[in-house]
User: What shape does this take?
Amino acid sequence: MRDDVTELIGIYDADSTLIGEISYWIGARFGKRHCSLCEITHGLFTKKTEWTECEQRLAVPFRTYHRNDAPADAHAAAAGAFPVVLARTGDGVSVALAPHEIETFNGSTSAFAEWLNGYLG
Assistant: This one.
């Protein structure tokens, strides 16, 4: 295991406000909004069971946030590029998966879980 990683952080390309959630949901249904991390972790209305199981098996916590409620250091590390997966170590927070890399999973929770486990070693 990469013993330097103490936490993984996913930041969705959406806001957690009621208006933000509704706007994203409607936009996603009409092809106007897209968050590849949302597609990996959530189904139409709720978190995917497969994702919940993956989270429980990871060697470190995987915490998810929206753009507007992410911790300041995570938000700074993302530098406005969402969605993103970050790794927290004793040295700070850095990008583990950039938006274009998350996109390559094409919504596959199992492929994402496999990558995460490989990353953590």
Observations:
- Residues 17 and 112 are 27 Å apart (CA to CA).
- Residues 18-29 form the longest helix (12 residues).
- The mean pLDDT is 88.
